[in-house]
Automatic annotation (TrEMBL):
TM regions (residue ranges): none
Domain Organic solvent tolerance-like N-terminal: residue ranges: 27-188
Origin species: Algibacter marinivivus
Extent of Low complexity compositional bias: 582-592
Lineage, broadest ranks: Bacteria, Pseudomonadati, Bacteroidota, Flavobacteriia, Flavobacteriales
Stated name of the protein: Organic solvent tolerance-like N-terminal domain-containing protein
Length: 611
């Protein structure tokens, strides 16, 4: 080999080695400007010390990112920079980070920033005392407290935070608080998409507004449109109502909420509870109402004896001090000493008037008209009529009286005979109750007719009394007829039982309906069809943060270490965050990842259950 060939060979080998080194190390950090360059091998072996001048700061560039600072220590062999004083890092038009100090490896593309760190992108701003920034993965991370500001969504603080820049997604962990003009959100685990304002809450979480407080352990909230839904121990507290259910949808613009499955709505002012499996609630000055169905049950809680109303549908309307309960279609009422049925029941909680109403469109010949005709049972007495009113005293929590309008009919079975019934019918009935809520007196007026099984003190049958009169007053004792008085009697007679014709023993309109009588709260539901609860579609499970320092970063650090001075500690790995896998969060979830850009998979602002 001649001399020229030898020189060319050496040059080619050296060039190939340089290419190999650059491929291994990545693009070199470039010094664009420095006012002064010095060497201090004693304190900074192998480094160049760059300082600014009066004209401008030190300017450094690497792979499309630019950095400015007052002073920089550049380790060219390790492709590493330390930047001090008024540090600015810019990456294109998207990332602008300022701090007091930054160190950056051109091999790992990992930056460590400290001292009043502020990172801005077009969607939000991150502030923290310490921030880790991985340019290769486009992720930023803090673990000792930070703040994120999103103009339209508010300010978010947390102890741990991670920003996935390509996805515009934040993951916050521990002591998470979002505050904006309309609401405050507190959560343990909180995923937030800065471009849409979508927030996903996991663990014990609350959303507090001026008019409500929502609690859940899994939920979604659209911070821009102010709508969301909650599942898992979901609850909404309004000024005077508490709504609980398996799934709650809420719109804070209109103070509207809907609930699905195992619903309980508590009225804290009127001391009442409404239950069911689908409900809608409106709050506000203009409208204040509750609609509930699917095993709907309204409970007026009383110290002595609570009142239960069940129907296909229940609606509660009116201001808190004047609530009206409307139960319609197959309505039933129950308390221990009184129960009833009708097509619909209206109860005014302020006046204490409860109305049992018949369906007005049905004629007397309709096969449903009898079954839906209002009926009440009190002890051994059964009362029916076209309309029945119960009048209660709200202070004593007791029934004072009842009114039966049109076709009044009261029946009680004779205490001894098997098929004998005491009966009174007339146009109108007025009943009075004693302090034990037992019927004390009944007045039947206009075209009163009666059949009584008259007995002596020894309960021996004297005869069967049948008569017609203008009106009748009956006095009761322990549910039995004690005394009765007829006014303006037209006719009447006392028949021995053997001489009283069978066909005369019942009055027109007689209908003994004892088998329909509810004798417990459970009996209110015995005629209902089987109920199959809707399946809650719900939200995807929480996906916890993986290690910020993952295998990919460790591989990059290994490459950087191979270029470092073996006699000195590695610079590329000296300020890495410790393992950040959040095992606390893993108890909430299954690893199920959804791309934030696949909008078809992201929850939309609508109810969880499509009714």
């Amino acid at each position: 080999m001649n001399k020229i060939q030898t020189i060319l060979f050496i040059l080619l080998v050296g060039f190939a080695s340089t290419i190999s080194l650059q491929a291994q190390s990545g693009k070199k950090i470039q010094i664009k400007y420095a006012g002064k360059l010095t060497i201090d091998e004693e304190n900074y072996p192998g480094a160049k010390i760059l300082t600014r001048d009066d004209a401008e700061q030190v300017h450094i560039e690497h792979s499309g990112s630019n950095l400015w600072c007052d002073k920089a220590i550049h380790y060219s062999k390790e492709n590493f920079i330390e930047a001090y004083g008024n540090v600015i890092l810019k990456q294109g038009d998207t990332i602008n980070m300022t701090s007091k100090y930054i160190e950056y490896s051109g091999i790992t593309e990992f930056a460590f920033a400290s001292g009043d760190v502020i990172l801005k992108d077009p969607n939000s701003t991150i502030s923290s005392d310490t921030l880790y920034f991985d340019r290769a993965k486009e992720q930023a991370f803090y673990k000792s407290g930070g703040t994120v500001v999103k103009d339209s969504s508010g300010t978010i603080t947390s102890r741990i935070g991670r920003y996935y820049m390509n996805q515009k997604k934040y993951q916050f962990v521990e002591d998470v608080v979002l505050v904006n003009e309309e609401s405050t959100i507190n959560s343990d685990y909180f995923d937030f998409y800065s471009d849409t304002g979508f927030a996903y809450l996991f663990g014990p979480s609350t959303i507090t507004t001026e008019t409500s407080k929502t609690y859940c352990e899994k939920g979604f909230y659209d911070t821009q449109n102010k709508v969301g839904y909650a599942i898992k121990k979901a609850r909404i507290d309004y000024d005077n109502r508490i709504i609980e259910g398996d799934s709650l949808y809420f719109d804070n613009n209109t103070s509207f909420a809907s609930a699905t499955n195992n619903i309980k709505v508590t009225d804290t002012i009127n001391n009442s509870i409404v239950k069911g499996h689908y409900a809608e609630v409106f709050k506000g000055e203009e409208k204040d109402s509750l609609f509930i169905t699917k095993r709907a049950l309204a409970i007026t809680v009383q110290e002595q004896d609570s009142v239960y109303i069940h129907a296909d549908k229940i609606m509660v309307t009116g201001k808190p001090e004047n609530r009206i309960i409307r139960a319609y279609y197959n309505a039933k009422i129950f308390k221990t000493d009184l129960s009833g049925k009708s097509d619909s029941i209206h109860s005014d909680q302020k006046t204490g008037v409860t109305k049992l109403l018949n369906i007005p469109t049905l004629t007397s010949g309709d096969k449903f008209s009898v079954k839906r005709k209002p009926i009440l049972w009190n002890l051994e007495s059964q009362m029916t009529g076209d309309t029945i009113h119960l009048l209660s005293n709200n202070e004593t929590e007791k029934i004072d009286s009842l009114l039966v309008f049109e076709n009044a009919f009261i029946i009680s079975r004779d205490t001894i005979s098997k098929d004998g019934y005491n009966q009174i019918s007339g146009k109108r009935l007025v009943g009075l109750f004693n302090d034990e809520n037992q019927m004390r007196q009944v007045d039947v007026t206009k075209n009163a007719q009666s059949i009584f099984y008259a007995r002596n003190d020894k309960q021996e049958l004297i005869g069967i009394d049948k008569s017609k009169s203008g009106s009748i007053t009956i006095l009761f004792e322990n549910g039995d007829i004690d005394e009765y008085t007829r006014f303006n009697q037209v006719d009447g007679n006392l028949y021995p039982e053997s001489q009283f014709p069978e066909k005369e023993r019942i009055l027109k309109g007689f209908d003994w309906r004892e088998e329909e009588r509810p004798r417990s709260v459970e009996d209110l539901f015995k005629d209902d069809p089987p109920l199959e609860l809707k399946k809650i579609k719900g939200l995807d499970d929480y996906v916890p943060q993986g290690d910020f320092v993952d295998k990919d970063m460790l591989d990059r650090i290994k490459k950087a270490d191979s270029n470092s001075n073996k006699n000195l500690p590695s610079k590329a790995s000296r300020n890495l965050p410790k393992t950040t896998s959040n095992n606390k969060g893993k108890g909430l979830l299954k690893n199920k990842i959804i791309s934030p850009h696949d909008q078809s998979k992201l929850p939309k602002p609508k109810p969880v259950i499509e009714e």
